[in-house]
Design a protein that fits this description.
single chain, alpha/beta, 15 helices
């Protein structure tokens, strides 16, 4: 049995967990991280990340009022107001704190969301190349800072249950080398990521066919923290959404086609149809929303993105590792035809229906009545365009899921909330294991890295305050 005074046990060694552990150590607590991966460079989403720190696809360094407005636009106002205020008010502080720990950032591009990108930046190449890049360096640096303050990582430790005494969380049980080990704690932080790699949970909450949704992730988010929290009475919220992207269907078996090239820009500049040749979602909501709509279909591998040559030579060519020409370079099939009927025949879609679908769309575009289509087509972040300039292009697509957006309910101090709306003493949660901020009807995306770092910081600070620990070094 592990014992210790003012011990905080953190479940999960990704960004949220390592921020919580390093900050807790800085505040005078003794941090122990339980990481299920057994390797020194254990794989997780944070190690594979592209490294873009943003808030709702906008600059993370803006004033809280502007950040809050950006979040409300992205989520349509369907997020927990306490969490919105917590993220808006602390995201920039989280970046400053990371800088104080030796983490380096660069400007990664001209648009606002690229204002703060981990260095060294991810290589713009097909496949995964994370070693020595921003996310890998980030986790190694935080581990070094934590270790310097007396904290430690226990690798190969998969948490299995929370220990409770008098309604307070007092520890964790974990499988370590095939043995059940108890880790006593004065505070516990759940930060083991989402449930995207758990097909039963994905099937229950997100997709009727989880095997037909691409795991665009490290395949380590199994929902252990979610289950353990629910077992002791924690409230769960917003389990139906995920952050992800639209990818070529061949990514299901061709690793060169994920995590990039993403087909989001092509889908949002044209249209997406099912195997019946009809639209089924609002393309104007962007790739994250489209990916969720694909996953909800009975057959998530039955969809096709269509655009004209203006979109193919424009938006579909402008993104990082853009669909044009990188899909073909990675060995993927792209169909081109001189008319919509020919495109339908090549893709195996009902020709008359697809011609009618595109015709109705173009008429609505010309009339300014896209919002009266069924389903409607909005023009917010992704302006609509007509599909009239030949040749026309089509790509079979799939939904790539990176992390689930819902999970354990927390308050603005990252304290886990029970079914009565009250904090569970001694228990905190941060990152993708939590819910209430992202998702909703618009599948609002506020940023995984900003969410993880901000609430990891808040969890450590709330635990330290509750335990009366004194700060050795104030956060920036």
């Amino acid at each position: 049995m592990q014992t210790g005074s003012n011990r905080v046990v953190v479940i999960g060694g990704g960004l949220a967990g390592m921020v919580a552990a390093a900050r807790a150590t800085e505040l005078g607590l003794k941090a122990v991280v339980l990481e299920a991966g057994s390797d020194a460079d254990y794989i997780c989403n944070s190690r594979m990340t592209g490294g873009i720190f943003h808030v709702a696809m906008n600059n993370i360094l803006v004033e809280p009022e502007e950040a809050r407005a950006n979040i409300l636009v992205a989520t349509g106002g369907h997020s927990d107001g306490r969490l919105v205020d917590a993220l808006a008010g602390n995201a920039r502080r989280a970046v400053d704190w990371l800088r104080s720990q030796g983490i380096r950032f660069i400007r990664g591009g001209p648009t606002p969301e690229f204002s703060t990108v981990l260095a060294p930046p991810m290589l713009q190449q097909f496949g995964l190349h994370w070693r020595g890049r921003g996310g890998d360096v980030l986790l190694r640096t935080l581990a070094e800072r934590m270790a310097a303050g007396g904290g430690k990582i226990v690798r190969g430790a998969r948490a299995s249950s929370l220990r409770m005494a008098n309604r307070r969380c007092v520890g964790v049980e974990a499988e370590c080398d095939g043995r059940l080990t108890t880790f006593d704690a004065d505070a516990v932080v759940i930060a083991d990521g989402g449930f995207q790699a758990n097909p039963d949970l994905v099937g229950e909450h997100i997709s009727p066919a989880p095997d037909k949704v691409l795991q665009r992730n490290a395949k380590t988010g199994r929902g252990d923290g979610l289950r353990m929290a629910a077992e002791i009475g924690a409230k769960l919220v917003g389990l139906s959404g995920f952050y992800g992207h639209v990818l070529h269907r061949d990514a299901m078996f061709n690793d060169r086609l994920w995590p990039h090239p993403m087909v989001d820009s092509m889908a949002a500049s044209g249209m997406i149809v099912g195997n019946d040749g009809c639209r089924f979602t609002d393309e104007g909501l962007g790739g994250v929303s489209i990916a969720n709509a694909i996953a909800r279909l009975l057959d998530p591998l039955s969809t096709v993105v269509i655009c004209d040559d203006a979109a193919w030579q424009g938006p579909a060519k402008a993104a990082v590792l853009a669909p044009n020409p990188n899909l073909s370079r990675a060995g993927a099939f792209v169909t081109t035809a001189s008319d919509i009927s020919g495109l339908a025949e090549t893709m195996g879609l009902p020709s008359a229906t697809l011609v009618a679908t595109v015709g109705a769309y173009n008429k609505a575009f010309a009339d300014g009545s896209l919002d009266r289509l069924e389903p409607p087509r909005s023009s917010g972040r992704w302006p609509a365009s007509s599909i009239i300039q030949p040749p026309f292009h089509a790509v079979p697509v799939c939904a790539g899921m990176t992390y689930t957006m819902g999970g354990i309910a927390i308050d603005d101090r990252a304290r886990v909330i029970d079914s009565d709306g009250l904090p569970i003493p001694g228990l905190y949660a941060a990152g993708a294991t939590t819910g209430g901020l992202e998702g909703g009807p618009l599948t609002g995306y506020t940023g995984g890295l900003s969410k993880a770092s901000t609430f990891g910081l808040l969890a450590a600070e709330a635990a330290a305050e509750a335990l009366g620990a004194q700060s050795q070094r104030a956060a920036s």
